Amino acid sequence: MENTNKKSSKLAIVGNGLLHENPNLRLVLGTCPTLAITTSLFNSIGMGLAATFVLIFSNMAISACRKVIPDKIHIPAFITIIAGFVTVVMMLVQAFMPGLYNALGVYLPLIVVNCIILGRAEMYACKNTVIDSALDGLGMGLGFTCTLAVMSTIRELLGAGTLLGFQIIPKSIEPIGILVTPPGGFFVFGMVMAVAITIDLRQGKKVVSDPEKIGCAGCIHSEQCGKEGCE
Amino acid sequence: MMAAKLAFIFFSMILTNNYVLVKFLGICPFLGVSKKLDSAVGMSAAVTFVMVLATAATWPLYSCVLVPLGLAYLQTIVFILVIAILVQLLESIMKKFPPPLYKALGIYLPLITTNCTILGVTILNFTNGYNYVESLICAAGAGLGFMLAMVIFSGVRKRLEDAEPPKAFEGLPITLVAASITSLSFTGFGGLIEKIFGM
User: Fold this and answer.
1) Which of A91, A186, A223 to mutate to test the interface with B (most CBs of B within 10 A)?
2) How far separated are the first and last CA of chain A, in Å rounded?
3) Do B28 and A215 touch (CB under 8 A)?
4) pLDDT mean across residues, chain B
5) Is some CB atom of chain A closer than 8 A to the CB atom of B41?
6) Is A220 an 8 Å CB contact of chain B?
7) Helix, strand or coil for residue A58?
8) What's the mean pLDDT in B119-134?
9) Tens of pLDDT along A65-113?
10) Residue A125: alpha-carbon gap to chain centroid
11) Exposure letters B111-139 (e unless 16+ CB within 10 A, then b)
């Protein structure tokens, strides 16, 4: 009995990232890649998996070192750990998937400053055990990948008529080209977020969607933000 | 010719390649700090300042130290550390200055380390193969472009406050839709700069 309880709580950690605390739609972290690389499904899945890899390992490393790192320099220390794993991912992708490496371009090294990773380090990994942190990284990473996949499916299918490069909608039907352009990215993200909020409202949950309240809650700068920065 | 190329880089970074609205870098401060005009200006001035300084520091470091030593793959780690140190340094220096300057710029400095525009511009300078002067101009243009987007959007946000969107759109979703329309207005500049400078 106790064993099943334990199992379900571990599952809950993973599920948390997928649904209730979805990093993009709920915590509003990591918006830059969500908007920039979701023009094709293949790129988004690649990006999502790369970020998941970094999240799991950086969460584990930070959780393992959490008692050693002095409080004063914890942010530079966390960033260095994350940058190390990002470099590993960059080299792996460059070696095995050069096409994806070129498509993601600058957004791959920019995983370093993706607030999902630093945010989870700050909110979760520095307070929990190594295994829990790894599971949290897995859940958050999958939540991120799923959001990217949903966004890019909408944008690629309607904006270019293809999916993973295959023609799905016949060429005779004109695609809605604006969806793959930058304005389309903002628009689709707003719509997907509104749908997620509607689902929560239907279930009778209280939704806080004020940008300052949720956006900054997960951000490492929430302390300054609340006071002066984000007024 | 040289001056024309520099002007081309500068203006295309502000209008056609705007970092926020076209390249999607620095969306977090764009959504978070754009509610008031003063804070939008303060934040983007601090970003521009750090961006130029970070480029000034990382360009020689990469070309003169990392590449000759064959350590180019350490680019990401070295750059983010340089930016973090630079921001810390600037904050300590600014604290010594008269309070108005610190109040105007200093409070935004801690928010900047993880701002992706800064790391983005330092890396993109090498991807585009710019030389030292071009990189500095590019950084200044990117910073001013960031400021332009922030100032315009803070005006849009002000109107948004009085609007009454459907329940599901309250807060962020409607802000994103507004950002989409702002971004749409920037696509109008497409090709403009290339035509003017004949490139």
Assistant:
1) A186
2) 49
3) yes
4) 84
5) no
6) yes
7) helix
8) 89
9) 888 888 777 778 888 899 999 999 999 999 999 989 988 888 888 888 8
10) 16
11) bbbbbbbbbbbbbbbbeeebeeebbbbbb
